[in-house]
Amino acid sequence: MIMAPGKAHYDYDELISCGHGQLFGPGNAQLPLPPMLMFNRITEVTTDGGQFGKGSIKAEFDVDPDLWFFKCHFEGDPVMPGCLGLDALWQLTGFYLGWLGEPGRGRALGVGEVKFTGQVTPKVKLVEYGVEFKRVMRSRLKLGIAEGWMKADGEVIYTASSLRVGLFSDEEPVVE
């Protein structure tokens, strides 16, 4: 596996540093801060990994039964909202572009199809995420297109096709 200039894995404190704009520098890719940060560590980043050989990133999230979303989604039937798992995949896609050294702020631009075959309840201990890049555009347009998955205690419960995230400078309009 080929590593880019960034490290191959990141701990929680480094992810928080990224959320404060310190990892990739001001005006560049940032992760959201808790409670919207949906993973505790990035376990692997490569430029040639994944099923397409164009890069991959993996992360883990330790599930605590006291997480904020279990209290409100749904009362008496707690489950992690599916949109948070999808957002985690977008978060990782944007992080990867920043990790490659590309400038600009990350913005989710879409997804092809999302399938849910399971759920995250307070009984789940570990969520794992994987994003495998199909295409990375590194010209004037900075864009990652990838396939993603999410596991709950080792079982794949979400898949997402054609995840798209772009990086934009302050001068460029974000196309939505």
UniProtKB/TrEMBL annotation:
Active site: H73
Superkingdom: Bacteria
Any one Gene Ontology molecular-function term assigned to this protein's record: trans-2-decenoyl-acyl-carrier-protein isomerase activity
Keywords carried by this UniProt record: Cytoplasm, Fatty acid biosynthesis, Fatty acid metabolism, Isomerase, Lipid biosynthesis, Lipid metabolism, Lyase
Recorded GO CC terms: cytoplasm
EC numbers, comma separated: 4.2.1.59, 5.3.3.14
Pathway: Lipid metabolism; fatty acid biosynthesis
InterPro entries in alphabetical order: FabA, FabA_FabZ, HotDog_dom_sf
Catalyzed reactions: (2E)-decenoyl-[ACP] = (3Z)-decenoyl-[ACP]; a (3R)-hydroxyacyl-[ACP] = a (2E)-enoyl-[ACP] + H2O; (3R)-hydroxydecanoyl-[ACP] = (2E)-decenoyl-[ACP] + H2O
CDD domains noted in UniProt: FabA
Subcellular location: Cytoplasm
BP-aspect Gene Ontology terms: unsaturated fatty acid biosynthetic process
UniProt keyword Manganese present: no
Pfam family name, one: FabA
Similarity-based family: Belongs to the thioester dehydratase family. FabA subfamily.
UniProt xrefs under NCBIfam families: fabA (TIGR01749), PRK05174.1 (NF003509)
Quaternary structure and interacting proteins, as annotated: Homodimer.
Its job: Necessary for the introduction of cis unsaturation into fatty acids. Catalyzes the dehydration of (3R)-3-hydroxydecanoyl-ACP to E-(2)-decenoyl-ACP and then its isomerization to Z-(3)-decenoyl-ACP. Can catalyze the dehydratase reaction for beta-hydroxyacyl-ACPs with saturated chain lengths up to 16:0, being most active on intermediate chain length.
Name of the protein in its database record: 3-hydroxydecanoyl-[acyl-carrier-protein] dehydratase
Organism: Aureimonas glaciei
Taxonomic lineage from the root: Bacteria, Pseudomonadati, Pseudomonadota, Alphaproteobacteria, Hyphomicrobiales
